[in-house]
Amino acid sequence: MTQYLVVSAVAGEARYVPEGIPVVVTGVGKTAAAVAVSRALAERDVSGLVVLNVGTTGALRDGLAGLFVPSTVINHDVNAEAVRAIGLDPQDELPIDGGDGTVLASGDVFVADPVVRARLAERADLVDMEAYGVVYACRAYGVPVRVVKHVSDAADEAALDWPTLVDTSAKVLGEWVRENAR
Questions:
Q1: How far apart (Å, rounded) are the C-alpha atoms in residues 159 and 73?
Q2: What is the pLDDT of residues 37-67, one digit of tens each?
Q3: Are 65 and 59 in contact (CB under 8 A)?
């Protein structure tokens, strides 16, 4: 029987997750997410477990709105080319099973600058701050993961209004969990 563990950066993103489904709040950023998810996985039997990383995302391209289930997450703020140049694999791009084809750029930079947005849009559709850490930790433990993101903003100056936008996204995310985590 499949068991689910919902992972979100902040409690507000998971506010509408149905009762009975455990939630881990990681805090902001890839490192905090990886540590919190690793700790949660180390403390439980992971057989039959699926992690659902639900949260908000910024749209890197005009016209993107709604709910997405990315197929790839990239670590956008690692200097991957330099790491490759010294003969190492930075693992800067991780596939996610069951996605919809979108690419999510994940990094510790809160994107609200149009120049940064445009640069990231060359490689990705969406941006967040935790998914890469969540996916990386789940891969290390051999636990399946799905990333489910709702567009809260356009990753521009309006992103600074995120605190007032998160509840709308949380309702959509909670409904997705209710319909898909059975």
A1: 20
A2: 999 999 999 999 999 999 999 999 999 999 9
A3: yes
